[in-house]
Sequence to fold (199 residues):
Amino acid sequence: MKRNVLLSLLALVPAALMPLAASCQIAPERAPAPERTGPVYKWEAYAGFTYTSLNQVNNSRYGLIGVNASITRDFGKYFGITAEGADFFKALETGNPVNATVYQILMGPAVHVELFGKFSAFGHGLLGVEHTGGASEIPDISFAGGFGGGAEYSLGKRLALRASGDKILSSFVEDPNHQGYSPHMRSNARAGVGVVYRF
Fold:
């Protein structure tokens, strides 16, 4: 009987100390999430060379080349607002019926996504106005809008190369001498290459 009581008491000692030993164990702290180092750029500026087809000018055989510039305000990693202007002042080749020029002022939302490595992509929707000069268009200015996107290759934290393409819709009369001022929808393809600077 004494033996059983002694064994029971000896069994109670580790049972009583076990919760105390367990409570003394401290879980290792998680490593803190790595903090983002370096500046966060909220703006990006783009400048480059661009091409547009010239479907609003009758019998136009060649599109126009020119320059394009934009500024984008980023709101977070994926979304931004873009404002841009383009001036197309020279025909790609000779042979157009008139010496036409086009300029565009457009604005709209943009989305960005990282692809892999130094490559990323973007898309945007744009609304604004387009003007056709030197072609006797009536009217010579039209509401315009479209959508497009492109890819970027990062050259560093601030610089990147960009290639883009868009489809821009506008309304100009079918015949420059038409006196009814009836608008007709036109669709112009647009492409560009240039440099992005983030700040």
